[in-house]
Write a structure and sequence with these properties.
Layout: E1 6-11, H1 17-28, E2 32-37, H2 42-52, H3 63-71, E3 79-83, H4 89-99, E4 102-105, H5 113-125, E5 130-132, H6 140-150, E6 157-165, H7 180-183, H8 188-191, H9 193-204, E7 208-216, E8 226-233, E9 238-244, E10 253-260, E11 263-268, E12 275-279, E13 282-286, E14 294-295, H10 308-322, H11 333-351, E15 357-358
Parallel strand pairs: 1-2, 1-3, 3-4, 4-5, 6-9
Antiparallel strand pairs: 6-10, 7-8, 7-15, 8-9, 10-11, 11-12, 12-13, 13-14
Protein name: Putative dehydrogenase
GO molecular function: nucleotide binding
Pfam families: GFO_IDH_MocA, GFO_IDH_MocA_C3
């Protein structure tokens, strides 16, 4: 029997952008997609199974039936990817833990902080490994920024700015992300803001202690679609997150700037294979092939390699964690709980007219 890891996917059916990214990232990492419940619509689920190359008898009607049937197979699944709306993350993960299956989940970890804490406790009792798709932290130049900040190359961190803008809701639009029953307490703050928050903590190596949020909504939406959040870090730095889904013309504009007392670092998804280091009066462009090679070419530009490569990186690290390796750079349930605490405190702060609140 093939000893490669065997993956099931929940969600990711026709029309899903992220399903294909999971599939390709996992395949590059040496993982076979062999089963799934790709949609609540049986016809759509069957069509997705065909497109993914999954046998028809391993395309299941519901999640519980999938875990039961796969547990009875000698070649049953060893891991599951959760690519469903947020409200389905916790029940799917709990079923996976009960079945002893490892879990790789889309972010946010759950729909609410209480659910994230529930999941953390369930994982502690079980034997399932857990990974979370904070994808941008897997880019080599993002990890290079983290390493250089840890090495003191820009001195003491003073200011952290993270921007994430999309135009997907610039006009009238709907979907599960605008539905509190499916998304949870946050809209844009959960969808884009959690990515920005994770980057802020991941790159600096510091935790956010307090925040003040202003969350806006348009087109009569029940959830936010345009957000600004001020941050105070435990290490003394200040910061700001801008996350918006009403930014006309923006497809996936995510970037960060970190300013220290001796330099700065700049990264932009549009040129994901470059990192700009500023020290004194010198601007240094770092590339991915040799991070130690300092390329001093003003105005040099590059092209990011999309989301497949970082997904493959996270899946490779996930396989290592499933095999008993250390979590290392792979985001896990600790980051899941932190991000949900960020969402709930931001919603609460904004509802109170913009008030500083602690993140516990």
């Amino acid at each position: 029997m093939n000893d490669r890891p065997r993956l099931a996917m929940l969600g990711g059916g026709p029309g899903s952008f992220i399903g294909g990214i999971h599939h390709l990232g996992a395949r590059i990492a040496g993982i076979d997609l062999v089963a799934g419940v790709f949609s609540s619509d049986p016809e759509k689920s069957a069509r997705a199974a065909h497109d993914y190359g999954v046998a028809s008898d391993r395309c299941y009607a519901d999640t519980r039936a999938m875990f039961a049937a796969e547990a009875a197979r000698e070649d049953g699944i060893t891991m599951v990817a959760i690519a469903t709306p947020n409200n389905l993350h916790l029940p799917a993960a709990l079923m996976a833990i009960e079945a002893g299956v490892h879990i790789f989940s889309d972010k946010p970890a759950t729909a609410t902080l209480a659910q994230a804490l529930n999941l953390r406790d369930a994982l502690a009792r079980g034997r399932s490994a857990y990974g979370l798709s904070f994808t941008y932290s897997a880019y080599p130049m993002v990890r290079e920024a983290r390493a250089r900040i840890a090495a003191g190359q820009i001195g003491t961190v003073r200011k952290v700015l993270v921007n994430y803008a999309q135009g997907v809701m610039a006009g009238p639009s709907a979907g599960w992300r605008t539905d509190p029953g499916m998304s949870g307490a946050g809209g844009c703050i959960a969808d884009l803001g959690t990515h920005a928050f994770h980057l802020a903590e991941f790159v600096t190596g510091q935790e956010v202690a307090e925040l003040l949020a202003d969350l806006g909504s348009h087109e009569g939406r029940a959830l936010d679609d345009d957000d600004a959040v001020l941050l105070r870090f435990a290490g003394g730095a200040r910061g700001m997150i801008h996350a918006s889904q009403i930014a006309f013309g923006q497809r996936n504009a995510i970037s960060f700037q970190v300013y220290g007392d001796r330099g700065a670092l700049h990264w932009d998804f549009a040129a994901a294979d470059q990192l700009r280091l500023v020290r004194g009066g010198e601007v240094i462009l770092l590339g991915p092939t040799s991070a130690d090679l300092l390329v001093r070419v003003p105005g040099m530009r590059g092209i990011g390699d999309g989301l497949i490569a970082p997904f493959a990186t996270l899946y490779r690290e996930f396989v290592a964690v499933c095999g008993g390796g250390k979590q290392c750079s792979l985001p896990g349930i600790a980051e899941g709980v932190r991000s949900m605490a960020f969402v709930e405190r931001a919603v609460e702060s904004s509802a109170q007219g913009g008030r500083w609140l602690a993140i516990h």
